[in-house]
Amino acid sequence: MLAVFKALPLLILLLSVEARHRRSIDLIAAHSLISDSRLPREVTPNTYNLHLEPHPSEGHFSGRVRINVTWQEPTDKITLHAHEDLEIFKIIVTQFAADDETEKASSTPLPPTEIRVLKTERVPKKPLYVIHLEKSANRGTQCEVDLTFKGRLYNDTSEGLFRSSYIDPETKTLKWFVATHFRPNLARRVFPCFDEPAYKVPFVINVARHKSMVALSNMPLETTEKMEGKPDWVWDRFQQTPPMSTFSVGVVVSEFANTDYNTTDEENNFNFEIRVWARPDFISALANVTDTVRKSIKILEEFWGCAYPLPKIDLLALPNYQATRPADNWGLLLFKESELSGRRSWHVSQELAYQWLGTLATPFWWSDAHINNALARYVTAYTTVKMETNESFNNWPMTMLYSIYYEFSKRYPHGKSTAIKQDSTSAKTELVFRMLNYTLGERTFKHGLQKFMTDRQYKTFFGDDIWNALTEQAKFDNVLDDSMTVNAIAASWITKDRLPVINVTRDYKKKTVSIAQRVYLRERPHDVPDQEKFVWWIPIILIRQDKMNFTNSTPTIWMRKEREITLTNVPSSDNFIIVNPEEIGPFPVNYDVKNWNMLAQYLCTENRIKIPVNTRAKLLHDAWNLAYAGDLSFATALNMTLFLKHEREYLAWDPVFTLIDHIGRHIDSSAVHKKFQTYVRLLLTPLYEELGDEPKDDDCEGKIHLRSSSKVFLCQAGYKPCIEEAQAAFKKWMEIENPDEGNPVSNQYICPVFKWGTNEEWEFGLQRVIKFPPNRKQNERTYLLKTLAGCPNEAEKIERLLNITILEQNGNFTDNDVYLIFSMLTGSANGYTTLFNFLKKNWDTIKVRFEGKLHLWNSLITSATTVFKTQEGLDMVSELYVQRQSEFGTADFVIEKALKNIKEETKWSNDNLPVIEKWLDEYLQANNATK
User: Fold this and answer.
1) Is residue 354 domain-resident?
2) Nearest 5°: phi and psi at 424?
């Protein structure tokens, strides 16, 4: 395999920056994952020879790196990335090849010549290290830059080159290990380098270690040599890597054990080694990992049309690994122990997907990383589904879609959170890839991506490279006509922080259907500026009752950024239609009332299984979300839940729990809420009783989730067996001799007890917070405080908590505790109404107490005034505003915004509560249920 790397032309190893200047459709500033100091392009790397000598027990490392570089433009300086904590103390620059013109004029090669370094400097507030030379070099000059350095090994983070430890259970001794996590731009913390993804060149990595330890890196071990002057230490030299970015460099030095299962299988073209590593007493928990890797890689090789590119892969379960996601070094994957030992294969498949997309083919700059991440997520989901495990990925993409719809339907998507924006944009782009897979056809889609990978392997890419490859393949396969490009389709989705909704209106006499697109807005008011300018390329895939075929995902027609189109020859008036089955495109669909009613009636028959479960879930989810947005009658939406009486597929139930939560919160200040809770109990009790209290061995993850969710929502709705079970568990805690030493009660029981239980039980919980020992995990105290504030039905409990924390200023509660209590009280009408009354009653005292704590004052006003949803609440807040108008201070803008929002919510309540109540009355009467 190395021969392939060595045969690559030098052009691949050097940057062709001038040829890669174009911008992708998605290269907009908001999508940049990091801000970074760009290097000048005068000097670029060809190869690295890196030596690292970590001393884990002593907490430091030293090293040396020799970088072969080429001058792209005349300059007398070399600029590298180097973290300010990295100490560089020896620099030698050797010229061994002259520039192009000098080389041509000379008949013999020039001998290596040292170029004197005049000075070095660090650029203030930037991770840049500049080497100034005594003379300028011209284009084509090649040099070796030799730098010696040292730095600290940190064990409070899992970034850069870090160390961590564990206790050997046999010897009871402390064992240290060292590992790297360089993504996205942390290699500069460890060695001076060109720390940008576009600089992909080969590395030779050498690692020093004590002979009792084992070193691992990206490639297999090549040689081991004794270290001069240290008889117990050796140098491990690893084979040269293929061209890769600095963030792909990986090193681990440890005393871990590994599985000795040899997975080389030449008959099945499986000619590389897989090893799994962990601390010796944990390795048995990873027995099935190798098999998961084999299956996953086989699927990925088939998907990309090319073999895994390295001769080996090592997977390590690290104790005390603190990073939020695994480290996907090329050929060396690092996981938390729980991630690698768990039943799920998703974590493994995702990191394996990055071995192709991210390392083999690499985004040129971080602004393209979100599309890389989106495609990797899609490929991960594809792989996990193909592996046919019982994971929740069988629910993909429905669960993701619900949160995406919610985020992009807000008046202000993402708020001020860049992280939420990046994640939701990446998730939306993943769904665009899924849509293209369906609409172009899986064969065309895969061949297009294989073409992309063949073209960009060992190189870098822009987002446009992916879209162009798909376009070329689609036109070759006659899937798209000359007027269409994947670039245009994808751009219409990726460049907008919105999603469309499709309105389908049938003319039953003419047998036509009008299909219109507009911006999907769920939050009120729907006054988003310029919304009439938003249009998308939307595939219209239509299923008709008289010819149901859910296997054909070819669009009947594309809406080419058209506001409205009309289709003819649709079914007769007694047959329904379904648009966008299986959620092929990420958009909800609204129908006329007659079509909705036909769908609701059909789903209540045994024929409902002819509609796939994802589409059944979609119909239910679309209906209640559109009703919540004010675009559909709640009577129609609630009719769509009637089929659940006979439904047992957990995917179809998934939208119900969000419905219960959102609608329940919205109406819990009205008299309708008790009827709604009865409806919830009637809906969920048969399902929960059929599933049983305890999980079974053959339960899939989805069924386990369904049982758990059913129980949680039944408990919230006052299901007596659940409350009695919770109180029985809680009683055991109340009866132990030292209740502050630990909490023996499962978290699932605490909220039901505080909501439906006695004052004595709630008071016991309060005392546990007040007396919480400092040596216990504080997140347990936080959870207890959240439930004490957020769960109770009785105003008296909440008033007592507010009296203690605010009026009495109990020293056991911090400002952060008070802030948390305010936040939790917004979750129910009882909570925020009690908080409002408490504020009104104690205004003068609270104002004085919070005079120097403006963040708490603003939080209090926000939590106490902004969540009301009825005319009664509007009147209460309006009266307070008039009464205390000049006293709100910094929170004045909060109350003004609150009044505007409450007016909108009041209008919603006035429009919808009578409809919901009428439907509930009829439902409860039909089911012989009391309120």
Assistant:
1) yes
2) -70, -35
Q: pTM of the predicted model, to two decimals?
A: 0.87
The answer to whether the beta carbons of residues 216 and 332 sit under 8 Å apart is: yes
Residue whose pair of structure tokens reads 């003319």 in the numeric block: 507
Q: How many domains does the chain have?
A: 3
Strand pairing class (361-363; 459-461): parallel
Full domain range(s) for residue 625? 498-643
Of 339, 366, 393, the domain-final residue: 366
Q: Which residue has the tokens 């008070």?
A: 818
| Whether residues 331 and 253 fall in one domain | yes
The CATH number assigned to the domain holding 527 equals 2.60.40.1910
Q: Supply 754's token pair.
A: 């505080």
> Which two three-digit tokens encode residue 281?
């007493």
CA atoms within 13 A on the CB side of 543: 21
Question: Residue 425 has which token pair?
Answer: 């944009």
Under DSSP, is residue 46 helix (H, G, I), strand (E, B) or coil? strand
DSSP conformational letter for 807: I
Integer Cα distance of 19 and 642 in angstroms: 60
Q: What is the rounded distance in angstroms from the CA atom of residue 192 to the CA atom of residue 63?
A: 10
84/100 Cα distance (integer angstroms)? 36
User: In this structure, are 344 and 210 located in the same domain?
Assistant: yes
Peptide bond connecting 525 to the previous residue in cis, omega within 30 degrees of 0 = yes
Q: For 524-576, list the strands marked E by DSSP.
A: 537-540, 542-544, 557-560, 564-568
d(CA 502, CA 765): 49
CATH number at residue 764: 1.25.50.20
Task: Give the DSSP letter string of 568-585.
Answer: ESPPPTTS-EEESGGG-S
Strands lying side by side in the sheet with 174-181: 160-167, 174-181, 251-254, 214-217
Q: Which residues are catalytic?
A: 351
Q: Which residue has the tokens 């605490």?
A: 750
- R_g (Cα) of the chain, nearest Å: 32
Q: What is the pLDDT of residues 331-383, one digit of tens each?
A: 999 999 999 987 778 889 999 999 999 999 999 988 778 889 999 999 998 99
Of 117, 70, 111, which Cα lies nearest the Cα of 90?
117
Q: CA-CA distance, 210 to 227, in Å (whole number)?
A: 10
Tokens representing 216?
């691992």
Single out the residue in 347, 366, 385 at which a domain terminates: 366
Cα distances (Å, whole numbers) of residue 508 to 512, 574, 577, 589, 599: 7, 9, 12, 18, 15
Mean pLDDT of each 10-residue bin along the chain, 931 residues long: 35 34 35 68 97 96 98 96 96 84 59 94 95 95 97 92 94 95 95 97 98 97 95 97 97 92 56 92 92 93 95 96 92 95 84 95 86 92 79 59 85 77 86 96 97 96 95 96 95 94 96 96 85 94 94 95 94 93 95 97 95 94 94 96 91 89 89 93 92 79 85 91 94 94 91 95 96 91 96 94 92 93 94 96 94 92 94 94 91 90 92 95 88 53
DSSP lists the bridge partners of residue 265 as 270
What gap in Å lies between CA 463 and CA 308, rounded to an integer?
Answer: 23
> Rounded distance, CA 431 to CA 425, Å?
10
In a domain, 663, yes or no: no
Report the C-alpha gap between 753 and 638 in whole angstroms: 30
How many other CB atoms sit within 10 Å of the CB of residue 256?
24
Return the H-helix or E-strand segment holding 237.
strand 230-238
